[in-house]
Amino acid sequence: MNLQADQSVHEPARDLPVRAMPDVVVVGAGPAGLTAALAAAEEGLKVALVEGRSYVGGNLTIGLPVLGFLSQKGKPIIAGLPQRFIDRLKAQGAAGEHQACPLHVSLTLIDPEAVKLTALEMLAERGVDLMLYTAFAGVVMEGNRIQAVVTESKAGREAIVAPVVVDCTGDADVAFRAGVPCEKGDAHGGMQPPTLMFCLAGVDTEKLRGRLGDDPETYKADIIPGDYFGRHDRFIVVGLRQQLQQAREAGLNIATERTILITGLRPGEVWVNMTRVKGIDGTDPRSLTHGEIETRRQVGEIVKYLVGYVPGFENARLVAVAPFLGIRETRRIVGQYVMTAEDILSCRRFDDAVAVASYPIDLHRPDDNDCTLEWCGDCYDIPYRSLVPQAVDNLLVAGRCISTTHEAMAAIRVMSTCMATGEAAGRAAAMAVREGVSPGQVDVDLLRRQLLERGACLKSPT
Ligand SMILES: Cc1cc2nc3c(=O)[nH]c(=O)nc-3n(C[C@H](O)[C@H](O)[C@H](O)COP(=O)(O)OP(=O)(O)OC[C@H]3O[C@@H](n4cnc5c(N)ncnc54)[C@H](O)[C@@H]3O)c2cc1C
After folding, report:
1. pLDDT class for 1, splitting at 50, 70, 90?
2. Same structural domain for residues 315 and 334?
3. Which residues are 239's β-sheet partners?
């Protein structure tokens, strides 16, 4: 056969072995998927959780703090299962307190390795059937319903048959394959750029915060006043633009306008959020490969910058690079309701709220190397309808790919909110299975009462 690269080959149809028949199958075990699986299992359902990687946690494992547990007024707004997960980490010294932050509203430091193990323990305690090393590959449709989720692994292609499916892939992989209308990026398809996180040890963070606190004119942080650093020995600093400029003038090639550093839980540890490549599509492996190679190349330049220009980094050494490129944005489903920037900026309340959030619109702009931040001053609701996709009956979506615009997604994407939507989706899936209805038909007042009974926060605290 003489084939060209742009031609296709025919793959014959085949019958797939059924690997599992749970009540609910959750695809993706990041912050949203873990919480969705645990919530559905807590409701007494048989739950399967499919994860492509060798561990669970998604972006909870790449060195990021969890943002958004507190409101812009400093009140706790994410409770229930997400809080219980943090409490389990805290009991082992693997999570910090929720700490208010003038720029990021609130940060909660977590230990990535403890996240993986603790999540595994909690899933095992609830009897969740976890399938690692198992990629979601497609769906078998029966009209408007997903009859089976198809997986691909070393065991080949297999089917998981469940009455309700929850898509927590971050990329809306299941929804997209099932025919749910999806959108990607801004009006021109531009998506927030990805970042490969990395960790340095041996940083004198006391020296760093001393300079930030005592000489804020020279060591200038965006938004955060110098005295914050005097009061907190754990912090995120965004800024030091002058130092970056000096490094550039001296010939270093750095792809961002801002220094972004996050102190770790251990003394001397700092996670760096500064690699960046424009134009990457996280749903295209060729593009992802380019992003991985380019960001890995950037790590060395950024380390040189930090050691040479930022106080406290003189003796720093690279100790870890995150296991994968962090993807900020890809597909979003079009659901029963599309959340907008206006909903967020007007602190909009919804009758069908299943989570409360307060994180600002924090948009790493697709076209340049900077960021847009917009605060609303208080809280806004996440409506259940944004978790319910159009076109497919037995599917729910949680996490960063729920139904929003590009701008609204830049607010709801933080991991506390993703966990809260995961909990809502898991409990809604359980209701749908018990009542024999589709997720779009569940009694939302009852769902809200149930979420409240299980400890979730559905009201903006005063
Ligand atoms: C660089 C960067 C910095 C960020 N900073 C912060 C921060 O400081 N604090 C904060 O709270 N948020 C931050 N965010 C946002 C936040 O991390 C994400 O929006 C959030 O993790 C999304 O959660 P999720 O559960 O929807 O998806 P993810 O965390 O992406 O998890 C998805 C899971 O699904 C799995 N999966 C995907 N596709 C498949 C498939 N086809 N088959 C099987 N498994 C699959 C993945 O392996 C993964 O485990 C940041 C994001 C990035 C990229």
Report:
1. low
2. no
3. 221, 259
37 lines ligand 1 (CB under 6 A): no
d(CA 308, CA 135): 42
Residue indicated by tokens 């809080």: 83
Reply yes or no on whether the pLDDT at 220 is more than 90: yes
Same domain, 446 and 371: yes
**32 in ligand 1 pocket by Cβ < 6 Å?**
yes
Domain total of the chain:
2
How far is ligand 1, taken at its centre, from the CA of residue 401, in Å? 10
In a domain, 258, yes or no: yes
C-alpha 402/C-alpha 116 separation (Å) is: 24
Last residue of a domain, one of 321, 356, 372: 321
Q: What pLDDT was estimated at residue 367?
A: 86
d(CA 428, CA 11): 37
- Nearest CA, atom 26, ligand 1: 399
Residue 342 to residue 175: CA distance in whole angstroms: 25
Q: Is the pLDDT of residue 436 over 90?
A: yes
Average pLDDT over the chain reads 97
| Ligand 1 and 400: CB distance under 6 A | yes
Best substitution site from 66, 169, 260 to test ligand 1's pocket, by max atoms within 8 Å of Cβ? 169
Going by pLDDT thresholds of 50, 70 and 90, the confidence category of residue 370 is confident
Q: What's the domain range around 75?
A: 18-189+329-453
Is any ligand 1 atom within 6 A of the Cβ of residue 418?
yes
Smallest CA separation from ligand 1 atom 20, residue: 415
Same domain assignment for residues 272 and 341? no
